Each structure stands twice: as C-alpha cells, then as structure tokens.
Amino acid sequence: PALHEPVPIPEAGRGRQIDPPSDTAITYLLMGQELRIGNSDSDWIADKICIEVIRGGSTMIAPSYVACIETLRPAEERTIIMSSKGATNDLRLRCVQWKTPKGSQLSTPPFSSIQITELEPGLPYDFTVQNLDPHWTAKGLCVKVKSAYGSLVQCVEPLLPLQKRDVKIPVVSVTVPYPLAWETSAMCVQWI
Questions:
Q1: Interval 117-157: pLDDT, tens
Q2: Beta strands in the chain (DSSP E)
Q3: Could you say which DSSP state residue 60 is in?
C-alpha cells in the first residue's frame, strides 16, 4: 500500500499557496473619530475583521469598544466613524477571518465548533464559550451579543482545543438584561 501525505494545514504567514496572510496584513489607525482599516495583502480577502478600541479617561463608559467590518478586498481600505467618546489608549486586532483569493473559506472548523451558553442571572459571569474542536485553537473569537438595551461585540481570549471559558460583559454601572442572544452570522473566528 502507498503512503499518503498528510493534508497540509493552513498556517498564517508561512507563504504557501494555502496559507492566509499574517495578521500584519491588516492595518488600522485611529485619527480622531475615524478608524481606518486596511487589507495590505494583494490576494486574500479579509472576510471579517474585529478591532478593539481600548479607552481610558471617564469611568462612566465601557473600557473598550469592538468595531467589526466584513469583506475587505485585497489592497482595500475602509473608514469607520466611531461614535464613542473617551480618550483612546490603544487599538488591538482581535480577529481576522480570511477567504482564499478565489473567495472560498479556508478548510477550518465550522462556526458550530464554538458553543455559547447563557448563564443564570446573578452569577459572576454572563455566558460561557467553548471550543468543541479537538485540534484547532480559536485564536480570535468575537461574537455579537444582543439584549433588551441593544447590542455589542464581545471578544474572547484564545480558546485552546476543547477549552471552555466564562465571559463577563464589561458594561459599566448597568445590569445586563436577560435573556441574551447571539448573532452567530456576525461571529468572527480565527482558527490556528
């Protein structure tokens, strides 16, 4: 019997045809209230991108805000007008989900590999996320959380294979109204 070569796994920035660009291909700059986000790669489509704007100053506002955009084509730049107030201390790329140059998704786990569970009111956390995949790490994970007061994008630190994490929504001086809902179509998952 002939030996079969293992299927190559995409690895960001490695340079093979199957490898998506590294995170450095996404550029972002905040000038006043304009957040400029660019895709400097010449081939790959950034299907979803989430940038966290970390704020300082007033304690009456949430400490950070996450802005997400969809479908940033190669060499394209887009500007988002930020409506939030407060001094910005830092920007952080939280998630970039790539599409191949031909527009197809990478062969990574589906969204259903991330399980989101609402916890009971009164607990110290609002919901739990779990990576159900036994092989892939969810390096970037951002999900749109909706409640009676509106919606926000909540990003989670990386989840190793089969790892579970409790998440607290950082809303300052406001009780989180239940029930919560998630827009899985707005979810950004970056697998490694």
A1: 877 766 666 788 899 999 888 888 888 877 666 677 888 88
A2: 26-31, 34-39, 45-56, 64-72, 77-81, 87-99, 114-118, 127-131, 138-147, 150-156, 164-167, 181-191
A3: T
Q: Which residue has the tokens 């790669």?
A: 41
The structure's pTM equals 0.76
Tokens of 113: 């590999």
In angstroms, the CA 155 to CA 152 distance is 10
Which residue bears the tokens 């009780």?
A: 175
Residue 36 DSSP code: E
Select from 33, 44, 42, 35 the least CA-distant residue to 10.
44
Pairing state between β 34-39 and 77-81? antiparallel
Residue-level pLDDT at 87: 65
- Distant-in-sequence, close-in-space partners of 166: CB < 8 Å, separation ≥ 6: 119, 124, 125, 127, 128
Average confidence (pLDDT) over 105-125: 75
Q: What is the DSSP letter of 132?
A: -
| 1-40 exposure pattern, b = at least 16 Cβ within 10 A, e = fewer | eeeeeeeeebebeeeeeebbbeeebbebebeeeebebbbe
